[in-house]
Amino acid sequence: MKPLVPEDLARNGHARRERAATSLARAVLAEARSTFEMNRVGAAARIVKSAWPDDRRALALVTRAASAPAMTTTTGWAAELAITRIEDALAPFGPLSVGAQLLQRGTVLSFAGIHAIMVPGISTASGAFTSFVGEGAPIPVRQMVTSSGVAFGPKKLATLFVLTREMIESSNAEALVKLVMTESLAVALDAALFGNAAGTGAAPPGLLYNITPIGAATGGGLTAMAKDVSALVAAVSPTCALDLVFVTDPGTATRMKMQVMPGFDFDVLASNAIPAGTVICVGLPGLVSAGEPTPRIDASRDVEIAMDTVPPADPGSATTVVKSMFQSDEIAIRFVAEMAWTLRTPSAIAYVASITW
Predict the structure, then answer these.
(1) Is 298 part of any domain?
(2) pTM for this structure?
(3) What CATH number corresponds to the domain at position 235?
(4) Distance separating alpha carbons of residues 181 and 184, to the nearest angstrom
(5) What is the reported pLDDT for 214?
(6) pLDDT range class, residue 120, cuts 50, 70, 90
(7) Residues of the chain with pLDDT > 90: what percent?
(8) pLDDT value of position 183
(9) Per-residue pLDDT for 144 more than 60?
(10) Boundaries of domain holding 279
(11) Mean pLDDT across the stretch 48-73?
């Protein structure tokens, strides 16, 4: 049997997300280790080339535009970015993020150089579709999209975390950073995506915002499950046909996969961000997301930061602990990714809460 090569593994979505998460961890470590270099200009890139010479994604993450003109022919800068698909902006969130997997399966656009994107709505009016005409008869002109659509712009998903010098120099540094980052990023993304909070100037709305749940079937068992699934499909399929995905909590997802009949062709994803007993049906044609191809990573050991999950605007005026990275021999890492999502129409999603099965 022919052994698998990286190109073969790249066809597997799980393997691709694993490699992206690994590259992100390596980029973070390179930025952290570069803070101890005498000459910091290009230090992170030199570290990546030395430690992981074949990881072009990690190199693209740490390379700054000031190092060379942003040309697709310039090795170490835009040459790497040119082969990075926009979908890969979600890959660093790792296999643990069901939200990232879901967004990758919808329509993915780019915010590169764009402040806002107008996405056309989905129309189910009969006049929006093509019709048969007789021989020699005039072909009718249709207005394919009758809704005004939705506009959305980039939002900033950002976090700060601290690494000790001992940690970044450890032989297990790559595995530990990858584990912590992908887990925390996955939880944050899923909680925001599958929530019901309204959108703000800083964050996109949760997919369930302003969505009224469908009443759960009573009686329990397979009959109730069949009724709930049928109701969800009936609610979403008029706009998205059967290009659907179900998302629920891990326990419910396990029961669905064990109990559904062989003819059940829909994927069932599981996320701990979804309350137990809630089943969501998402029409993939109605889900749109956008982001920058690569997140921004910065490292510093010459700063003071407010060690709080909700830091005050002025740390000096509150009781929040302000910590010096230089004094504690630690490195502060800043991760910033621009992304957002929207539904082309509210009828592209439906959910049932408090199921009885």
Answers:
(1) no
(2) 0.76
(3) 3.30.2320.10
(4) 5
(5) 96
(6) confident
(7) 27
(8) 73
(9) no
(10) 221-289+343-352
(11) 71
Instruction: List the Cα angle 282/288/289 in 5-degree steps.
Output: 115
Nearest to 284 by CA among 271, 267, 272: 267
pLDDT value of position 10: 37
342 contacts 204 by C-beta, under 8 angstroms:
yes
Q: Which tokens hold the place of 63?
A: 């390379």
Residue 301 in domain = no
282, pLDDT greater than 80: yes
DSSP 86: G
- Residues 255/81, Cβ–Cβ less than 8 Å: no
- Residue 267 domain flag: yes
Query: Residue with structure tokens 């830091």?
Result: 311
Q: Which residues contact 7 (CB under 8 A, 6 or more apart)?
A: none
How many whole angstroms separate alpha carbon 68 and alpha carbon 154?
A: 26
Distance of alpha carbon 163 from alpha carbon 235, whole angstroms: 48
β-pairing, 330-343 vs 296-300, is: antiparallel
* 253, 278 Cβ separation under 8 angstroms: no
Q: How far apart are CA 32 and CA 11, in angstroms?
A: 31
Residue 228 has pLDDT above 90, yes or no: yes
**What domain count does the chain have?**
1
* Separation CA 73–CA 79 (nearest Å): 5
For residue 248, is it within any domain? Answer: yes
